[in-house]
Amino acid sequence: MALEEFQKLVVIAFGAFFFIMLLPALLELKKPGDAGPRRIEDCSVLLEEQLRIASLERTEDMKFDQALVSKVSQIIAALPNLET
Asked: What whole-number distance in Å separates Cα of residue 80 and Cα of residue 84?
């Protein structure tokens, strides 16, 4: 009898613990404290400019990488000739 009562108590304690842990999340879903992300109209031009600059920087990096790849491929192509 005592073991069954202890098991019931453990189940109730774990249930209460999980309910208490999940209660804030459930309340937040029901009534969010924040309206969510908002678009700021004044910064859209600044953001577009930053995206354009970032894309230009990436293309410059790609050009450098292509030159590096061609040099490395020339070195690799010369390696079998060194063995003979």
From this structure: 7
Range of the domain at 69: 43-84
> Could you report the per-residue pLDDT of 20-76, keeping only the tens digit for each?
998 888 888 777 777 766 666 666 666 677 777 777 666 655 555 667 777 877 787
Instruction: Report the phi/psi class of residue 36: left, alpha or beta, with left for phi > 0 and alpha for psi in -120 to 50.
Output: left
For the chain, the first-to-last Cα distance in angstroms comes to 87
For residues 5 and 26, state if they share a domain: yes
Q: Report in angstroms the alpha-carbon separations of 58 from 23, 35, 46, 65, 68.
A: 46, 35, 19, 10, 15
Classify residue 25: in a domain, yes or no. yes
